[in-house]
Design a protein that fits this description.
The protein is built from three helices and two strands, in the order αααββ. It is mainly alpha-helical. This is HTH gntR-type domain-containing protein.
């Protein structure tokens, strides 16, 4: 699913996959997204790649992180699809 040697960096491929899941409503607002470890296992990528993708999702306003609790889908009013 993620092409490690493709023209698009793996973290950006993951951003698109996760953003699509949020936009489709697979993950509900204010509910947690899968943990870093779950995403590492699902996609077979490095934890740093997952962290970088989640950081981009945070910058886009699609998710927010609560220290010691996890990363959650942002309420739809806060999401911006730049």
């Amino acid at each position: 699913m993620i092409e490690s040697d493709g023209p698009v960096p793996p973290y950006l491929q993951l951003v698109e996959i996760l953003a699509e899941r949020i936009e489709r409503g697979d993950w509900q607002p204010n509910r947690p997204i899968p943990s870093e470890l779950q995403l590492v296992q699902e996609f077979g990528i490095a934890r740093g790649t997952v962290r970088r993708a989640v950081a981009v999702l945070r910058e886009r306003g699609l998710v927010f992180t609560v220290p010691q609790r996890g990363t959650f889908v942002a309420p739809s009013s806060a999401a911006s699809t730049e």
